[in-house]
Batch of 3 targets.
Target 1
Amino acid sequence: MNKIWLILKREYLTNLKKPTFLFSAFGTPVLVIAVFVLAIAIATSGDTMDDLKQVGTIDNAGVLDAEVRSADYPDLFVAYESEEAARAALDAETLDAYVVIPESYIATGQVQLYSYDGVPSDLEDVIDDLLIANLSTQVNTDIPTARLIDPANATIRLADSGRELTPESLPALILMPIIFVVIFMIAMQISGTFVMSGLVEEKTNRLIEVLVTTVTPMQLLTGKIIGLGLLGLTQISIWIGMIIVVIALGQDIPLLSGLVIPVDMLVYSVIYFILGYFLIASLLSVVAVIVNSEAESRQYAAIVSLVFVIPVYLTAVFLNDANGPIPTVLSIFPFTSPTSMIMRVGFVSVPLWQMGLSIALLLLTTLFFMWASAKIFRWGLLMYGKKPSLRELIAVIQGNPYKYSQPQTETPTKKEVRAS
Amino acid sequence: MGTNSAIVVNHVSKSYGDFRAVDDLSFEVFRGQIFAMLGPNGAGKSTTIRMILDIIKPDTGTITILGGALNDQTKDRLGYLPEERGLYRNVKVVEMLAYLGTLKGLSNRDAQKRAMTLLEELDLAERAKSKVSELSKGNQQKVQFAATMLHEPDVLILDEPTTGLDPVNTLVIKDLIVRMKERGSAVIMSTHQMWQVEEMADRLVMINKGKQALYGTVDEVRQQYALHAIIVKGEGDWARLPGVIRVEENARTGTFLYMDKATTSNQILAAIAADSRMTIDRFELAVPSLNDIFIQVAGEHLPEDYVQQTQEKELVYE
């Protein structure tokens, strides 16, 4: 136990100081936040309604009443007799834009907006409001204009999950699961890759021979996987900490104001992280002992991580219907479930049986691969040279390692034969 | 089986599929002795070492280390230097040594202290804070040797300990090995450098095709292969000496005088001394070097060019 602790401690501390880790732990979130801030800055740097002085109206349909003005911008709109007059005013920069309401408007609802520069996107809403206000005067009703403009302020509550779906929390609901998946995925991958590259280093420089005569292969593997798993959790804590800080500081930014960290999602994410990480780490430790070089191991690692990442590429499908067949299957299938389930939990409420089945299958798969990889690991640690085939690996798992091959325990080199 | 024995290998066999890597091998290693393990490549030395280290299990037979099967406690009393060297590259020398020391059960402080002492002895004290990757290959090898003996193991298993070292560093390492022996550790040393075996080893085993080919003290083994002959250099009609049955000239080594069974080398020496017509510059027993014995035993398994080369120069006696 003490030896596992020593290995765990060393793996955690050495990798904590690695540039790769420091960059991904601190650099990535800083970079993401920077991009985010930049995007918000660009989005809000365009023209606003306050930049508009006047907008001309040419009412060929006879729907505008000079008395009924825009509620928010009563002085914005100025009526013009003809398009030519409005155009002259636009050229003279008296107008920033003008809107033509054609005769066919009542039937089609089409209006044309003219301007030289772009107009703020809100202008369309303001024109809408103006038209509604004017049209409503012609409708014989006591219902206030405000209700016609904005008939319902809905608060949608998702059954079971209790998450509140308001216009303000909508970005948070979509964004949070994706942020979580990315955070947990990256942490899983980085820690898993550290397990692999550490083992590859020890194997290629033969330090492994010294280590396994000091500790058992299982102590070595356990210490590494737990140590680096804790490193992954450290990374996740740093990121979530940063998110909390950003949310706290950014309450005034509309896009951020609705953001909260859903506790249930956090709990599920940690469960799936632990199971998924053990699965990835077992698979990659097998890769580490059967390959002969760092470069080769990276190719296999890429294949392994691709499987785990598949659901991220299908985010659109999840957004569309997170309880649909594809998301459901992906969230139950063990290799894709860690990422899929986090997204589903964020988007919708997941039936309890699916959650149970998903966790159970992932747990069983993880336990199986840990057991199998332990067998291959012990056998493959000191194998050099030829890479074993799948058939050979299965023979090793079955406890019959030399069914198809014999290990090359010595590398004959001529020079060593020459006695002095 | 003496009470002094550190390792007992008892009728051990190991097969990989159809290939018999080690075949009914037995030997014993004593404390306070250097035990050499010889044999051509592929003879089964590494397999044997790995079985002693419990990295692989023997099919049949037993191995006893420090009184029992290898366990967590005895593992801490073991030091192993593998044939192919390697260390963590991006770690400071002293940190690397301390880590391996703590894995062997030393406290962190103890491990650091011992690491510094050893590095001083190895003339590497000023590199203690350097990264391993910044050291020369020879220095890395010295660091690895330090890692092997940092915890003063009772059993030291060294696979080719001095390969690749310059003569000065070879001496430094040799002294440390001898010191471990004098401290009472059992040292197993696998090597191809016969002069080292003759110089350092107390006992040896030679393995060929997985089987024990030679076993005993270095002198015993050499005597086993000794010719009943004397090599002389000098002037005289050697054939006339009583008891000499055959005379063979060898341009390089000298003249071989083969004796009959009843004659001893002392009698020949006395006869030469008594004969005023004979002068000698050199007189020695025709005991083969370990190198010759090695080649003789393992010759058929050596690479072709090497065999040819040695056949051309024929068996050379000291």
Target 2
Amino acid sequence: MPETSPIKVVLVDDEAPARNLLGEYLSAYPDVQVVGECANGFEAVKAIGEIRPDLVFLDVQMPKLTGFEVLELLDPGPAVVFCTAYDEYALKAFEVHAVDYLLKPFGRERLAEALVRVRARLRESVPAQPMGPAAARLSEAARPAGRWLERVLIRDGVQVNIIPVERLDYLEAQDDYVAIHSEGRTWLKTQPLADLAQGLDPARFVRIHRSYVLNVERLAKLELYSKDSRLAILKGGQQLPVSRAGYTRLKELM
Amino acid sequence: MLHPFVGTRARLGLYLGTWLVLGVLLAAIPWLTWGLTIAGALCLMVPLGLLFGVIGLSALWVCRSAPLDRTPALRLASSALGASLQASAVWSAAATLWGVVLTRNNVIDASRQEILLGVGALFVLGVPLYMGSMVVHYLWLTFEASRQAEKRVLQTEVTAREAEVRALRAQLNPHFLFNSLNSINALVGSDPEGARRMCESLGTFLRRTLSFGARETITLGEELALVDQYFAIERVRFGARLNVERYVEAGAEACLVPPLLLQPLVENAIKHGIADRLDGGTIRLAAVVMEDRLRVSVENDVDEDAVGRPGEGVGLENVRRRLDALSARETRLDTARESGRFRVTLALPARRAAGEVHA
């Protein structure tokens, strides 16, 4: 990228002093321009979607949406530098291709190092790796052991929807997307079905077919369809195909 | 279930060895009184001695079914006598058979009458022998029970100490320090006076935390002052998102409490009621004394759709353990979640500095 165009930066941190500090540090760089400040994940998803900055400084622990969840909801593009007081997420941060990981408190020198890495990343001609699905995998990996996904995050334009898993009816694979059916509405999420299904409690969600994952609480009855396949009739009336392997899994659960 | 006397190879050897020796001693009786040869007497009595050793092990179950401290003397005596007669009868029957076998094989030379007489003697001998075995078993059971009790006491002590250590270690939450240092770092540029104040607050908070942690008890007033210091530091981070309301009854502040008992609860309240909420919330502290009981509650807003269940965290568990270590009977910890708020209430005896109970 040409040296003349400034690096557009969005700061995301729920604590004002932390944002002020970054703003102050960055004001020393004439080619860096802070174009947005966000105090939570929702604002961040909206602002980053609209402004399309080159660089985002992202806190991890924030209300409602963590930094990793914000990343999961973003289109690939901006370079990301995590800023947090917690060192336990460092490995995950690099797995979602974060450029750097600043541990609070940090000084000007440490920020300067991060900016060197950012410039190197921005100069790379290769487009940034799509980070949405990777981040989704990792925010799942960040789940405490033995606990399943409690909510699914979906971005609809700049709007973020949080769907608790108990409100899910079923998931449907559609090419690179998952169609998420919940209480009569359908949402699309860019993530392979298998990845999303992996995070769901197997005592409540069953892969009844290569393309379908069912919330068993929604099942009304099963009907024989042909020799090897059945139909699942949902309480809402929808009909989903059940493969032989899917039927075996369903039977094991019930 | 393996009998503890013979549970290991060494014990089995020792036990059987003892009965081997007793068998040899028993052989003296037929040798001296009925004129058997030494070899014959040994052949007769050593196996019978070992057999009694095996029969004697059954005393464990007899002793267990009639524990010394919970069985009336009469029942104890009757069970001991009954078991001894049965054991001795089994032993004498075996002795009869063995005596006949040895006679037929000409190992010993005895008439039927002599055998019967000898068996009668053995039957009489078997009763006190079995009772002896019961005495040994009772001694062992008593010893074992006191060892178990001692172990339990130690275990309780260790648990209490561990809870204490964990609780104190948890006080110095490193992330609180990191975030505070970051706030100071930010203030240095924009508000140097504020940075100085923050350094002072943080220093005071740490110093008090350390000195309180070393004490057995502190007054609730001291604890609440520390909590205030903590709120002052966190207010720099959270600004208007953090609101605090306090209701502390006049009599409550002088009550003695274990140090830093409220700290984990207040940290939880900040985390769930302030940090995890977009617009923050209000933390309510209340302390009242009612009927010799001090009741302290910490209450915070909580999101209806919050991920994770408050009330199962490490901080709360620590407080619960510390109260249990203090007195499981006299203290209580209750949690309630209603209409968007989460409340933890502690109740403990209201004690004042002099130790007297205050109404």
Target 3
Amino acid sequence: MPEQRKTFHQELDEIRDDIVRLGALVGEVIPRGTEVLLTNDMGGAQAVIEADDELDDLSLRIEEHCYHVLALQQPMASDLRSIVTGLWLTGELERSGDLMVNVAKGTRRIYGVSLDPKLRGLIERMSEEASRLMKLALDAYAERNASLGVAIDDIDDTLDTLHGDYIEAIFESHATHDIGLQASVQLALIGRYYERIGDHAVNIGQRVQYMVTGWLPEQTGAARLVARRSLAAEIGAENSVPEAESGQ
Amino acid sequence: MNAPRITSLADSAEVEQVRQQYTSELEQLALQVELMGVLVDENLQRMRTVLNAGDLNVAEEAIRTDDRIDAMNVSLMERSYELLRREAPVASDLRLIVSVLRVTAELERIGDLALRIAKLAPEHELLTRVPAAIDILETLAEHAVNQYRDALRAWSTLDLGLAEQVASEPEVAMASRHLVEALLAYEGPDAVVVALRTMVAGQALDRIADHSAVLGARVRYLITGDPDHLAAEVR
């Protein structure tokens, strides 16, 4: 039935493909933004900033597509989870792209500052690690691999450690007057952008786990609350304390 | 599933009753989001107390409250799904339900960030090592909480002007810059660890303000339904 309108699953597949494409754009902009930073490339910085429009457009289109599918169909539970995950992921990816725009803007502010090899090396490694995390998160999404999704949180520890070393290196360079105050500040802010991209990858991983299994990280907290309440109810039955969280 | 066909007056009354029940469920849903927002607000208060005094008991309370926030997030999500499945909503109803899913995710993140700061309580002394830095953190906290409250108020009152104002609030990059400057000026032997802890707090506060701006953008879209306003989340 070729003339029939797109089936529901075709629509879902399209959303998935678009999200993978959005993820690929983010995956490209991370090393490109880093290259621009390390080579003091002002034209490149401008190009990174302008390229973000494409990313924004695509994420907007995906979001509208999700609404469209929700409005036209009556999805089943697991499909609903896929669509809602799609909505969340566009937000995470779009903001990751924005962070590389911030790196490009930071590049302009430290124009002409030469970075010592240690700092350069750490920036490269943070960038690689952020790219790797994003790629793994997107792989987890495309393959519907929940266990990979969850694992990203642990893998992110490497980026956190690198970030700590990086801040230390900035302090060293600043103390020896290799870089001035303003450049140190900019570099410290730039380091945070990479760290935040890692956080977005972790979020994506958790969303993937939810999409596949229906399990949310928040359910642990919710379960603790229930456990506390039932414990309090037991104690309450003995000591007649009315509320779980009374007397705080 | 198509709407039930009306074949008699009695049926019509029944349909009307079902319709009213649905409307009240939607109202309840929006109200529950507000309640979740109030819990998050309580934890933002605790976060400020911790920044100010490093109170460990308050940090404990924040951890417990965060479990309640998580529980509300899960239950709101389930209710939204139930409505999506059962009612196949369109237009503004669909927008409301999807907004609930988006907004609760933002609220949950804001709650997590508040908790991240509250958990610094045992290391509060490190945060106060550089007086200028803790002052900036408290200023950032005040700004972030004000932003958040405006966003939540925009949600409860569906105030378009307020939502737009919160959505377009510029980033507070200036304060973050001063924060790093203050940290770099400090020359104690623990300078790096002081800087890292302080920056964790500073970054979390920036992001609370950022998520509040996204909340504002979401409320604006909920009110206007203008697809262009979906893009408003972008920076």
